[in-house]
Amino acid sequence: MNSNSHPEFEQETNRLTSTVAYMKKMIDLIVENRQGQREEIRQAFIDLDFLDSSQSYISILVTTQLLEYGKEHFYQLNRGLKKPYFARIDFKQAETQDVKRYYIGKVSLLTKEDQEPLILDWRSPIASIYYEGRLGTVDYQTPTGKISGELSLKRQFTVEEGQLLDIRDIDITTNDTFLQASLEANVDNRLKDIATSIQAEQNRVIRADMTPLIVQGVAGSGKTTIALHRMAYLIYTYADRFIPENFIILGPNRLFINYISEALPELGAERVTQTTLIDFMVELIGKSAKVKLVAPEQKLFRLLDETNQASINSVNIIGASEFKGSIHFKDTLDQYVDRLQETFVPNIDFMLGDHVIVEAEDVRRIFLEEYSFLPLQKRIEMVKKVLSNKLKAAKEPILKLVEEEFSRQIGEVRSSSEFDDDVRREKVIALVDLRNVALAKLTNSAKTVVKKYLAFFPKIDLLRHYRRIITDPASFLDVSELGMDKAIIEYMCSSSGKLISQNKFELEDLAPLAYLKYLLIGYEEKFEVSHVFIDEAQDLSIFQLYTLRTILKTDMFTIFGDLAQGIHSYRGINSWDQVKQDVFPDLDCNYLTLEQSYRTTIEIMEYANAVIKKVKTSDIILAKPVIRHGTLPYVLSFKSVKDMANAFENLLQIQLVSGYKSIALIGKTLKECQLLKKNLTKSYDILQGDEALYEGQILIVPSYVAKGLEFDVVFIFNIHEHYSNEDLDLKLLYVAITRARHHLFRMSLSK
């Protein structure tokens, strides 16, 4: 219904005006209170009695917390002034008579007088019925149980700069105004805030319980955006248990981190830790290891360069990568450390002088049994503590025993009739001197005996041990018995040895190194991480996920990915069941799907689905495009690169004139992209994936870098390199196709 003809337009306009006025009043009150609170803190410090400071300290603490809350509320209110809310629901709870109106926005606001909600936060429990409920009987979940009732109105508002522009009453949100406007809009390089248009399947993901959550989301389903909104929901819902700093987002690259960074403050999650998986793993391993990483995409280039991706060389490359990322490699490291620990304990009694304090067998038992749950280095530290305590307890008795023995000998000499007085005196003096030397020697030895004993334990060198494992085929005998091809093991050991001799490592080596450090050395830092969010998780390995869970000591993971876009499946995940079985075998994982694609048109999505159907796996979920039609993909063929470049120039101008803000020219490889750039009259940047940010309306993008991005118009071009029917090529082509929102062109040279 048009805003001007809506019967309640004036009433809603007045309500919005009064809400904005109240928000401004609250902002002024916060500013006024802030000065008074600062003065209270200053006075409390003046009055602070260091002999009895409890009351002053409490006053400072409380006032500081109020000041911090006021600062956060001030920021939220200011942020919400332009658009205080976007929806209204009318709801009557079962067994009550009153129909209550709730206005839903991105900020929570209660009246100061009676604490009635002027605005409900979109993350609140009752707001869920706006996203999922239809008019009629509905229910929603609260911390105390389920609440049922009658939903009689769902209303959407278009508000800009504090002014009401439009009202629309709806039943379901699938084809609502906000969603359609969002889908039809042209994109820039900022992540969208979708709180106004969250769909039912997305809402279920956002509000899912805090068990390990795996989300299989098709291309264009909003995985990244939903991940951030889920994080915002958890921070809001469990504010009494967690702080934003307890959450970490692990992204695929720095471009992704920059992409999400501007959206986090809008969602109240700016203090969340954001980093890439590579950077985090390198940090875990430690700077002292001086790990130099081979370019992560290098292996993909080698596979793409293979004329036959089923060649022996490709089979070895893929097999080695799969093994390094498998739970079997983790088992190999466990077995290595199990064997290594047996050689660690010296077969020597711990003694002070000639006195045994702890027998070698007891030291062995302490190391191998009592502290078997600790890394080897920390076990050595515990052995040190035990030996130090035993020494402390035994030192005085030993000294006393020695002194008593000398006293006995001196007494015997004194009472002996064998010697005359002079000889007797000399012998006594000699024994006294020997006693003093022996006691002094034992006392001095006690200062260093623990250190000297610990020197018999081997020094732990992380890289040396990893090198010993990864370059020796004998390390993997147990695995080969499970069916691991010996040729692949030999290839892995040989290729890894060549890299490590140059102190270089592959991306696949990072998780094993971090895990081996966990087993051998341990981590001094206690990680204050309660919840881990991972995007593009299909490109992670089982071992990487297992290592994260083990080291961070948390079960709360939210994992987003799409197996259809697994262009690194040679080192990544081929089935989400693998994750459940190998990473969370002791937990009941929640598995949800996002099957609706909101990015592209029906025509483009059907074209993409026809490609991905050819992949040889049964785990691929086909995307269901939202009801938005467009033109069919344009398929063009050219006789020469020059003809193709000329067509590009003309078509690009047409798209720009049509108002499209972002255009991508996607080639299969970097080499193809460089060739196209060379033939274009205008110079466009090539996105290579390691940028912190990207700018420009028109970009040239290799297919493997395009994943996670979206553009109004996409040109997929093939000059010398074409997409075969091998799984890797099909996934790369699928990724390229599904970047387009409005128009897709496929351009190639005629064969």
In short:
The chain is of the alpha/beta class and 751 residues long. Helices cover 47% and strands 17% of the residues.
Give the secondary structure arrangement, pairings included.
Layout: H1 9-46, H2 54-80, E1 87-93, E2 100-105, E3 109-110, E4 117-121, H3 128-132, E5 136-142, E6 145-160, E7 163-169, H4 177-184, H5 200-206, E8 213-217, H6 223-237, E9 247-251, H7 254-261, H8 263-266, E10 273-276, H9 277-285, E11 292-293, H10 298-305, H11 312-324, H12 327-342, E12 350-352, E13 355-358, H13 360-370, H14 376-415, H15 421-454, H16 462-470, H17 477-480, H18 486-500, E14 504-505, H19 507-520, E15 531-534, H20 542-552, E16 557-561, H21 576-582, E17 590-594, E18 596-597, H22 602-612, E19 624-625, E20 634-638, H23 641-657, E21 663-667, H24 670-679, E22 698-702, E23 711-718, H25 727-737, E24 740-749
Parallel strand pairs: 2-4, 8-16, 8-17, 9-10, 9-15, 11-14, 15-16, 18-19, 20-24, 21-22, 21-23, 23-24
Antiparallel strand pairs: 1-2, 1-6, 3-4, 5-6, 6-7, 12-13
Helix pairs in contact: 1-2, 5-6, 9-19, 11-18, 12-19, 14-15, 19-20, 22-25
How many extended strands? 24
Shape: globular
Ends apart, CA distance between termini: 55 Å
Low-pLDDT regions: none
Describe the fold and architecture.
- This protein is of the alpha/beta class and 751 residues long.
- Helix content is 47%, strand content 17%.
- The protein has 25 helices and 24 strands.
- Strands 1, 2, 3, 4, 5, 6 and 7 form a 7-stranded mixed beta sheet that branches. A 6-stranded parallel beta sheet has the order 10-9-15-16-8-17. Strands 20-24-23-21-22 form a 5-stranded parallel beta sheet.
- Helix 14 (376-415) runs antiparallel to helix 15.
- It is globular and about 130 Å long.
- The chain starts with 8 loop residues before the first helix and ends with a strand.
- The model has no long low-confidence stretch (mean pLDDT 87).
